[in-house]
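Morning F.,

Quick status update on the modeling queue. The single chain you submitted on Monday has been processed. Sequence for confirmation:
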Amino acid sequence: MNPMTFHAPQATADALRHLAHAGAAVIAGGTNLVDLMKEGVMRPTTLVDINSLPLDAIAPTAQGGLLLGATARNADTAYHPLVRTRYPLLSAAILAGASPQIRNMATDGGNLLQRTRCHYFYDTAVACNKREPGSGCSAIGGLTRQHAILGASEHCIATHPSDMCVALAALGAVVHASSAQGERRIDFADFHRLPGASPECDNTLLPGELITAIELPPGAQFAAHSAYLKFRDRASYAFALVSVAAALDIGPDGVVRAARVALGSVAHKPWRVPAAETLLVGQRADSALFDACAALLLAGARGQGQNDFKISMARRAVVRALEQAAAGTIDNMHAPDTKESL
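Structure tokens below.
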């Protein structure tokens, strides 16, 4: 193991002071960072354990939204009564990810900071621009079944692995961050980056910044019609090939009053196209309309050969997710038709 210093501050100001040093990294649940350290992908010289900071609360906001503390565990968030009733889409997305053991450890802030699961990124024997800028992208022309079909560049075709982040993107969350220079709010759409020429930069956090909370705007209008669908190689403990977070506000006349749709595992960040959502508004919900939304959402999609199937899969997934959302809400806690006694 590489030599490093370890700090477990009791106050946020102390944590920020340690994070200001070059080579510092935050550890909370450690469900991704520890793996990366074991593989030699990340080599922090300072670890700052933030578990003692008062950042684990989940509480309503004065505006009718919800504030998720950065160190709140994924499991606690998924099963929180206010999340389940107001934001079942978020609960469903979290429960579709990882395993119960990992969800018990992983934190909400850490979920946003997951690194890609591209096998070339994890293999230090091959070139990877994300791991070592300027070295090249071994994925291009290589094994690309799990890679991006949207927003990729000549420098990187990796995808973001999170399930939770897809729902947060659809819900229009806001990230709260603090640094020695003060606090700021980052719209979720602006938090993660596309690779461009700097794929080593996953997000727009500044050096020394710490995520302190994730704010959800009021979302009760979507609670009755939402679904998170995840298409993967096996039923559990697998990253998505394609995932969809869909939420609709449907009036008594069957007309869509508002819509949110985000795609996961297709790009370097959760993929959302506001124009595709606007297309649904004022229209009666039906499959033809949903397919038009999917086509707009996937405009410009391009495969790498082995992952060409993801384009058609994603289009069908969007339609299915919207159909299921129109019919009701899927919370991923039990099969829709399963009786409570079974």
